[in-house]
């Protein structure tokens, strides 16, 4: 299979604390979405890179799990994933130290132990998981 490339862009004007920026994606899903210091390090409005990483990781993992289930002839009624991204100060900079995935799933035709094993495989194999060097955890809530 040929390689796949996706792109996004960011614009920034001003200093780190008083500047403002926006993020856009080539697909147009994000179009000049605002971001800034307060959205990233406080409770200001706008998005931030960590939130976008969380969205990307939740989406990637959930789709990877759907493919992994299908490989065993299973189809999910529902897979709902939340990704909580933790960023901590390290020296004078910051580092993403953890991504906590939380999954609620309804998958008929399997048992909880098998499901958890398949979910762990999907977590390990998802391209975003493989990209991140943070500690990535997974909590599952199996509903049948």
Automatic annotation (TrEMBL):
InterPro entries hit by this protein: KH_dom-like_a/b, OsmC/Ohr_fam, OsmC/Ohrsf, OsmC_Ohr_Peroxiredoxin, Peroxiredoxin_OsmC
Domain of life: Bacteria
GO terms of molecular function: peroxidase activity
GO biological process assignments: response to oxidative stress
Pfam families linked: OsmC
NCBIfam families for the chain: osmo_induc_OsmC
Protein name from the UniProt record: Osmotically inducible protein OsmC
Organism this protein belongs to: Falsiroseomonas stagni DSM 19981
